[in-house]
């Protein structure tokens, strides 16, 4: 069921999905309008309904159909131009954020459904004696035409804002923060601090090799726990959501044997997706910063914006409990799986920025400042040690390539502030 819901969700965000649904609904509505008028006619007290004749209805419906499909082509062209700009300046992996945007889909759907509605109604207009004019549908076509005008104005404003770098960064920040909050809320079923079994525990277990390849998009943990509990076995996964699974590679070990239907809980696909893949949104933001720091773009302000959003997400997490990937049921070990931890998360956030931004003092200084603020939000000693290690690497890389004495002094001052904060927190904990 989880796999089916996942596939439906992935289908619903496709660029064509909303326009297709709106077009089908428009055709159904057009048919209902024609049938309604053929059965009951038009009451005289409905004065707002179109009251023209056959020729006027044909001209009106033809004009609405022609103009709506023409403007739809213009809207599509603007969308392609926006996608080309996004791919060049922000990275091709962000194209999905634009094609899945509901505002873009609704705008295109409005124009296409209006065209389909008008064209279907036009075929119902008949001459003869007496002629048949679908007054309800013609009136609705007028309303849809006005809606197209409103949607065009909305779209021009929406597409202009959607390619703003700040809005894109904020949107990615929201996705990343929500994914991290959801992950840290997940609690395993074992006792707090449950230790993983020794590596030799899995020696001699039955192995599972991947029958196909692709990114692990969805991992149904509950289904795995259910299957392992039913077969009274322990299962160790070697892959996590976001990992690329190679064909015939070892992905799981079961002791004393594998439970049945392990692959039913693993959904593979050609692309990475948000949700369980905690590092995907982080990598998208990191890529924006890395492109901004490239010599061809040279936009440290965008990189600083990304660093600020990373600090926002880390301070939102604060000292939440991270899943350890060890699951018990009825006091029996049932599942062990790799998970993203705090150290790995910081590496994905800051490694590329540190490597590409070492020669930009403004980026390095802001990175140390954000690490300082993040350290002030945390109380866990191990996580502060991770921050200290990243600060050491940032300082080392920056001082190696920074020649200006003033910039070097600023970097040393920010690093000293962070170190004093960490040392002061350690003194408080010792007391």
UniProtKB/TrEMBL annotation:
Pfam family, one: DUF2254
Top-rank taxon, per record: Bacteria
Entry annotated with the keyword Transmembrane: yes
Residue ranges, compositional bias (Low complexity): 186-199
Keyword Membrane: yes
Secretion signal span: none
Residue ranges, annotated region (Disordered): 184-203
Transmembrane residue ranges: 12-30, 60-85, 106-126, 138-157
Key words, A-Z: Membrane, Transmembrane, Transmembrane helix
InterPro entries recorded: DUF2254_membrane
Protein name: DUF2254 domain-containing protein
Native organism: Deinococcus detaillensis
